Here is the input.
Amino acid sequence: MLILNHQEVIYCQVVRPKLGKFNKLPGLTYHHRLFCQVESYQIGEYKVAVNRARQIFDAAEQRLIFLLVEEPTGYSIWCEDSQLISVQEFESKFAAKTEIPLNQKSTNFVEPMRQSGSVSRRSKSVTQDVAKVLC
Here is the structure.
């Protein structure tokens, strides 16, 4: 468990796609590792936050990295999670490779996708499912 200042970390948004969850979650990066927020505490609850972070760290049998981040408005506990990816990386991996004109009167949107040749049929359906979730 590490105790850090908020200036030592980079805040970002993350998703956990391996569990089928595409909701954006608060996250942070520290030494090229992604963390998700576990709990947060008010500014006057430093000792409570430290004790709780120790409990969580011990309960995980010290196999995970936990951060206690001192922020301007309080303290937050963060846990490393290897299943997280940043929203930017997620969107770049799963974004459609070609643009499909959606304002056409034609109802056949599948044919232009098939003709592009850059995406397999399987990954197209996955991309469409992801797009539905994000929109």
Q: What stands out?
A: Helices lie at 46-59, 87-94, 110-116, 121-134. The chain has two domains: 2-86, 95-134. DSSP finds four helices and seven strands in the chain.
